[in-house]
Every structure is written in structure tokens, then in C-alpha cells.
Amino acid sequence: MTTRDQVKRAVGIDRGESVRGSTPDYGPNLPERLFTARERKGVDLYRAERDTKIRARYLAALERGDYKELPGAVYTKGFLRNYALYLGLDPDDVLLQWRRERGEIKEPEPVIVVPRPISAPRKGLTFSPAVIVAAIMTVAVAAFAIYLAMQIQRYVEPPTIAVTQPRTAVVDVDETATSYVLRGTSIPGATVSIVSPSWDQPMLVTADTSGEWIADIDLRRGRNQFDISARDPTTQKTSDDTKRIFITVPFREIETPTLSVDQPADGATFENGAIPVQGTTTNAKEVVVHATYTGPAEGDSPPKNAPTPAQVKVAVAEDGTFNAPYELTTGRWSLTVTASSDEGKTTSLTRNVTVAYKGVNLVVRIKGGRAWIKVWVDGKVDKTVGAAGTVYKNGKTLTFQGKRSIEVRTGSSGVTLFTLNGTKLGALGKSGIPETWLFEPPDEPQKTNRN
């Protein structure tokens, strides 16, 4: 036997004959392997069912090796792959063992592995200074391009605004609540503006570096409205949409309305009869104003009969404010403002005022339709109305004051009502008929041809 034959015989003994003479040991079978992996993971079949979305009875069948209980080979392979991934096993190895145990794969013939010739080791990567500088420049250019793209995107798009607290646009809070914390998100550094009809100025807060903002707002009884928007301080762009939030603080059933009167001030003197009555109330369904004549103004003669102006109901807005003119003739008056609740509770405040007319004071009221109006005060066009005149809607009230005369051109004389120096004249013509009237007391109103 030659030396070459001896080598071949040794290789055959080491690699082939030992393989042919014994059955390879693959360790535990697949069911035991799955069961052991699940026990090692520390979960039961029902926990595994929730995590893998595979029914527990199918998982139990896999661990028993009872593949007949499974829907079919395609489903079985899918179950095995997902279960292996869940248990931390190699899914390809698990499927290979399943096919081998089912007899789909025959045992491989031994293969004689011939040693590879020794090759020279590969040279490692080398970095020259030029390569390092080029890499740094590439990274710097890419970073600058990303930054530039972000800045361009910021200048193109307006800031976003979102409210995370409250989660709904309409919220009811406890009747004892006096404040509420609003939270939301926008772009980092954005100026968030919160506007309420009951505030003189908006509340401004700044979003932090993550874009979150927070605001502690005061509440009053009733419905509180807040309009929330964002502005980018860099681009000065404002968010496209405004978030509107309603927070309602319920009234106590037996609570008496609150009332404050901002105008008129007590003891004020007016040179015309359109007295502004405005203020704020809570828990009130309506506000009523009436006046009592207390005597002539200084220098005036007492009237033959004391005037009795009509009682006026003033509408209360959703934010609790009210505002309306109240017409009075010359003299001293005691104004009483009364707020009434649904339960019949009332609160009243009194203001003493004096009306002392000077010159010409004319109140023009549009009632029963729309009317075009043009006005001349002391011979000059009134700037508030304009040289071309203005069309006013039904219910509009205008007040003009002159030294000698006031002239009014109306497109519909029948819906234009006049009150001159506290004396109600009503409409001086018919509806739809354009007319011009000159008011120059003590003369009676005269019709003119001025256009």
C-alpha cells in the first residue's frame, strides 16, 4: 500500500466510515424543544396565545407533535416560524427539523472536506489624510444641506397649533372652579396667543424647546370662550387654524346675579341724550334699564310735566357683557340698572346723571329695514358716514352733534327715526322715499333739496 492509499484510508475512517456506522444525534425532538423553550421563557400557553395571536390549542398541538390537529402544512409552517421567533429560536432551523422529523429530508451523505490552501491574509483598510479630509467635508456638506432644508421648510409652512388639555372643545368643570390649565403643542419657541371675549388683552405664552406650551387661565361663572393660535417669532407667520375651547362653570341655583356698571359714571354730565349704558353681569338672563326724572339741569326751567322715558331691556352677551344707548331729554336723572336671574333673583345699581344739551344733538335710528344715510354737520360732510354715504342695517343707532345745524339725507325716510335734543320726532317721511331734512333748533325740521 502506497503512502497516498494510507492517507485516503485515514480520511475515510475519520470522515466517512464513522458517519456511515452511526445515526447523527440531533438532540431533543421538535415538540420537546418548543416546550422547553416556552418553559425557559416563563410563559404559559394562554400568555403565548395573546402574544403570538396563535390559538392555544394549536400551540399545544405543536408542543405535542400532533400536527393533525393543525389546519394544514402551510399554516403549520407559519405557526412554527412565528412561534420560534417568539421563543427566541432560529425559525429556519425549526422548520428544517420539522421537515426532517416528518421524513421530508433524507440524511445527507458524508462529504470529504479537502483542506484549503493557505492564502495570504488580506491587507487591512488604510486611511490617508486626504481620505479623512474628504469624509469630513462630505459629512459637513450633508449636515448643512439638512439644516438648510429644515430652515426652508420652516419659512414655507406656518406653525402648527394643537390643544392636548382639554381633550374636547367643550368642557364642563365644577361650579367651584376659578381657573383651568390649558396645555398643547406647537413648534419650538412659538408664541401662543389665547384670546377671550371677556379679556382686554390676549394671554401670550411661549412653547418650550420640545414645542409644548402651558397656560393657567382664570374662569368666571358661565360659559368661557378661548381662541388659541400660534405665531412663529422668526417668520412672523400665524397658524392656519385657530382652536376654540369652551369651558363652562355652572351657576349655583340660588346664586344672586352679580352686576357691574362701567358707564355711565355716577354724577356724569352729557351734552346729548344718548346715554351709553354698559357693564358686566353673571347668572343673569336679562338686564333692564329705567330712569327717573329728578329735576331740571342747571340753568333750565322746570318742564310742565316730568318726562317718563320708557323702560329698556338690554341683551346680555354670552360673555356676560351688555351695552346699549338710553335716550334721555334735558334734566337730571336717576338711572337704575337691574340684572335678573332665571330663579327671580335680582341685583340693581343706580347712577345719577345730568343731560344738558349744547348746540344740536341728533340721534338717528334705523328701524323697519335698511337705509342709506349721508350727513352734514354744520355744513360739512360727517367723516364717520363718508362723502358717499353708508347703508345701515335695521336696528342701527347713530349719534351726531353740531354747533348750529345737522342735515340728513336718507334713502328711505319711513325707516329713519330722529330724536332731536332728547325729543323723539320719529319718522318724518314714508318708507322707500329718499328725503333730506335740516335740523336747526329752535326751528322745526325742514325738508331741503340737498343731495
List the helices and strands and how they pair.
Layout: H1 3-20, H2 30-41, H3 45-52, H4 56-64, H5 73-87, H6 91-101, H7 129-156, E1 161-165, E2 170-172, E3 179-186, E4 191-195, E5 203-206, E6 212-218, E7 222-231, E8 243-249, E9 258-263, E10 269-270, E11 274-282, E12 286-295, E13 312-314, E14 321-327, E15 331-340, E16 346-355, E17 360-366, E18 371-377, E19 380-381, E20 390-392, E21 397-402, E22 406-410, E23 416-420, E24 423-427, E25 435-439, E26 446-448
Parallel strand pairs: 2-8, 10-16
Antiparallel strand pairs: 1-3, 3-6, 4-5, 4-7, 7-8, 9-11, 11-14, 12-13, 12-15, 15-16, 17-21, 17-23, 18-19, 18-20, 18-22, 22-25, 23-24, 25-26
Helix pairs in contact: 3-4, 5-6
Q: Could you estimate the helical fraction of the residues in percent?
A: 10-25%
Instruction: Please state the average pLDDT score.
Output: 84
CATH class of the largest domain: Mainly Beta
Query: At the third CATH level, what is the topology name of the largest domain?
Result: Immunoglobulin-like
Query: How many β-strand stretches?
Result: 26
Could you tell me how far the N terminus lies from the C terminus, measured between alpha carbons in angstroms? 139 Å
Give a structural overview.
With 451 residues, the protein is of the alpha+beta class. The chain has four domains: 86 residues, 434 Repressor (Amino-terminal Domain) (Orthogonal Bundle); 89 residues, Sandwich (Immunoglobulin-like); 98 residues, Immunoglobulins (Immunoglobulin-like); 89 residues, no CATH class. It is 22% helix and 34% strand. Strands 18, 19, 20, 22, 25 and 26 form a six-stranded antiparallel beta sheet that branches. β4 and β5 form a beta hairpin. The longest helix is centred in the N-terminal third of the chain and has 28 residues.
